[in-house]
Amino acid sequence: MRFRHPDGSTVHLAYCTNVHPAETLDGVLAQLRDHCEPVRRRLGRDRLGIGLWLARDAAHALVTDPAALRGLRTELDRRGLEVVTLNGFPYEGFGAEEVKYRVYKPDWADPERLEHTTALARVLAGLLPDDVTDGSISTLPLAWRTAYDDARADKARTALVTLAERLDALEELTGRSIRVGLEPEPGCVVETTHDAIAPLTAIGHDRIGICVDTCHLATSFEDPHTALDALTEARVPVVKSQLSAALHAEHPRLPEVRASLAAFAEPRFLHQTRATTATGLHGTDDLDEALVGDALPDTTPWRAHFHVPLHAAPAAPLTSTLPVLKAALTRLVGGPHPLTRHLEVETYTWQALPPELRPRARAQLTDGIAAELALARDLLTDLGLKELP
Prior knowledge:
Blueprint: E1 2-4, E2 10-16, H1 25-43, E3 48-53, H2 56-64, H3 66-78, E4 81-87, H4 111-127, E5 134-139, H5 150-174, E6 177-182, H6 193-203, E7 208-213, H7 214-219, H8 224-233, E8 238-243, E9 245-249, H9 255-262, E10 273-277, E11 280-284, H10 287-290, E12 302-308, E13 318-320, H11 322-333, E14 342-345, H12 362-382, E15 386-387
Parallel strand pairs: 2-3, 2-14, 3-4, 4-5, 5-6, 6-7, 7-8, 8-14
Antiparallel strand pairs: 1-2, 1-15, 9-12, 9-13, 10-11, 10-12
Helix pairs in contact: 1-2, 1-12, 2-3, 2-4, 4-5
């Protein structure tokens, strides 16, 4: 979906296909047929943006076979779909029964991460619509925080500098400008937007910036306006933003709140949980850990890294951090010029929701994703952007 900003620029809205896990190119093509095109039709749109997640095997197939890349581009066009952004965070296995810590491997100290992201950039340059020259890729925020020392930090920094050089060369070759954004996430080396400023300014290249995920921002109790003002002052580019909402518990000391939270503790994804007090941010690596004993202070609200559907807040006594998303979006695109032109709804946890909230048929998932996009569309038009055909 495209929108005209009051300054005349185009803002793109997509939804991320990591909600439909697929490891191979055939799986990606099936996603387009079974999920993405039905969402477009449900919205009544002639064109729909999707943020593709391409696992290692799918990316390799596309970057080594020009005919396969042309075939994917043709299939996107045929189904009324377009791609300006990729999710390069998960490397493989995102559809496994247990993902947890595996999603952070390989990290930016490992050569495989550089090679995979380079492949994604080359693929994206071939998928961009004819009238679009700028693409974006989100990636993990350097590494998970453990086992990350100065030597690995040096390797990661060198890899990102090399990536920037390759992106420069790619633009010279194709005329397409691809940028990559580190996506701060709780528990990682770069947990907050503030943590991103030092490593990104050290790299000092405008092709390497930040991806602001509004669930992660909220989970770490960052104020959107403060965070985005600091990024602007530091001249760190916001390459893209993922529109998502976290799980919020206002009174975690109450038994009924604990019981409601426990329903969201599940074995597939990691749900880092945070609380903030006068002494700073407190956290656990997963939601079930927070619910045991006194792992977190319970006299202050908790937030958990669980991407809940944007349009459907959890039932009381829980809620979502949708207000944080709205505040961030106002700062991102509500000013005289957008801070980013790539927005991506990223609720990948539909099948990890408590059983009574999960979609039980493909059509229900289609309806849910369409409802999230409709909400995001309304937020954008309320900020003065005009939806384009």
